[in-house]
Amino acid sequence: MKAIILVICSLFATSVWANTYGIGDQLETLKLQDQYEADYAVDQNVTRVLFSRSMDGGNLIQEALEADPALYETNSLAYVADISGMPSLIARFVAIPQFKKFDYRVALDREGEITKALPAEKDQATLIELTDNKITQISYFDSTETLLEALK
Predict the structure, then answer these.
(1) Which of 8, 51, 129, 148 could form a disulfide linkage to 137, CB 3.0–4.6 angstroms apart?
(2) What's the pTM?
(3) Contact 119, 52 (CB under 8 A)
(4) Distance separating alpha carbons of residues 112 and 126, to the nearest angstrom
């Protein structure tokens, strides 16, 4: 019986891992909306994607972009945040108004479906580097300083 449970768990875990993007994978265009509900596409023009699935990861990205606003002046960098884990009232009345204070656009995944395959580590910021939508590097950051170094 234990062997059957182990096999079933292994199959489930493998299918979950198989659905996460990795180096060498072609990233499909992500069609989201920003904090102002305007359409936002992460497409072939983007060479770097900053991604957060948690508040801690988002805070790291926010601190980095505020420390060096020139990083976001080109269209080659996109910030994508999965806010599906937030209760909808908190997202609507606290988080989104906070995002509207930023000087840069944030692509928001309110449902979590569009970004579910993007790689992430708990409480960290993810930097995905692309060439023609092909993932060339994935890095995780737990400090603003190291994220800033990678972005420069």
Answers:
(1) 129
(2) 0.85
(3) no
(4) 16
